[in-house]
Amino acid sequence: MRTNPHHRSVDPLTAVRNLGILAHVDAGKTTVTERILYLTGATHKRGEVHDGTTVTDFDPQERDRGITIFAAAVSCVWDGHRINLIDTPGHVDFSDEVARSLRVLDGAVAVFDAVAGVEPQSEAVWRQADHHGVPRIAFVNKLDRAGADLDAAVASIRERLHTVPLVVQMPIGREDGFTGVVDLLRMRALVWADRRDSFEEGPVPEALREEAGRRRRLLEEAVAELHPAALEEFCAESSVSAGTLAAALRELTLGGEGVVVLCGSAYRNRGIEPLLEAVTAYLPSPLDVPAVRGTLGDTVQERAADPAAPFAALVFKVNATATGRLTCLRVYSGTLLKGDAVLDMGVGRTERVGRILRVQADRHAETDRAVAGDIVAVVGLKSARAGTTLCAPAAPLVLEPPSAAEPVVSVA
Ligand code: GDP
């Protein structure tokens, strides 16, 4: 049997993470994003927030600088996973834009300041993410700052966000002496040295063993309380393995029952690798989220994240740039090929897709196709607006991604 070229997937969908970074202004979203792009090699020089070289913190007036402004969605690769970072404004004034970004991402990292803990805007964005049913993990940033206190930040996550924090790391050292973390799953110490981009892994220092053991037991107890099946597995094992604990943490994250908490200092480049590991381990791929729902008149359809299904995508941002009009979209089902005709459900007109771009921080890579689960920008569409559905002309529908208020059961 001949394979249909439309159906070939560029990345296995299970290895895709459409990720948002949610934060109160100043908590460190830009710095975390920069460090991720640096570590994943998407950008070659390490941008610093203060010297104006950051690639995601674009100035809205720099409308002609194409790529920089399109950093609304940046793609990078980490450990065999494609991570698409979708920008979500940190300011509540842009809450429509926040809502639009939340619709197209599958999971998020909420960044908190280790001194301030949960701040009002973080609460607002957290509630929106709850509404859209976006699974989250938390990163308590700025542990190097004077007054940084992981436990106090964790307490504010519990009290103000009404969720169960599942703390998987313990800091090594305080404030200026913050050098690393104990990974409480594997019970290993990860220590960063200044002027090095990676950490050194070793046994938990003698002086920290008792404390690390106590925190590990707290984590196991919290997981067992939320997850009765995990409790059974814990009882069956003579000592709970990292794999069993990780599997339970993933289920709790996907079900929104608790939030995995990690910590570090983005500015000092500490804790970013474990954060990326947690993104790939706990947050969902496009296949793990419910099928998207679409309507046409009175009929309701579900579209699974299947490259072979009819094409359907949601536009979440449009930028006028020197490259042309860039339409950023999330493909929910089917495959889009360069040159394809798509139906714009906003204006009811069919248009042809010119180039398909994947943006990698400081450059863009042209690709010949985008499949279900992908986040890309296309050039050549004249009328599509944010919020518009694009679909195969033969299979029209208006997409309505599921929200927490209206759970949808996947029939994929
Ligand atoms: P955003 O507004 O959330 O995007 O925050 P930024 O990433 O722009 O960071 C706000 C400020 O906090 C900047 O001056 C950063 O240099 C600083 N910052 C970010 N991460 C850290 C950190 O881990 N430790 C310290 N001490 N400062 C940080």
Structural class: alpha+beta
* Major pleated sheet: 8 strands, antiparallel
Helix content: 10-25%
Rg result: 21 Å
Family: Belongs to the TRAFAC class translation factor GTPase superfamily. Classic translation factor GTPase family. EF-G/EF-2 subfamily.
Organism: Streptomyces coeruleoprunus
Subcellular location: Cytoplasm
GO molecular function: translation elongation factor activity
Description of the structure:
- By secondary structure, the protein is α+β, with helices and mostly antiparallel strands.
- The protein has nine helices and 24 strands.
- It has an eight-stranded antiparallel sheet with strand order 18-17-23-14-15-22-19-20. A seven-stranded mixed sheet has the order 2-3-1-4-5-11-6, with helices on both faces.
- Strand 17 and strand 18 form a beta hairpin.
- Helix 6 packs across helix 7.
- The longest helix has 18 residues.
- The chain starts with 15 loop residues before the first strand and ends in a 12-residue tail after the last strand.
- The chain binds guanosine-5'-diphosphate (GDP).
- The site of guanosine-5'-diphosphate (GDP) has 18 residues, from helix 1.
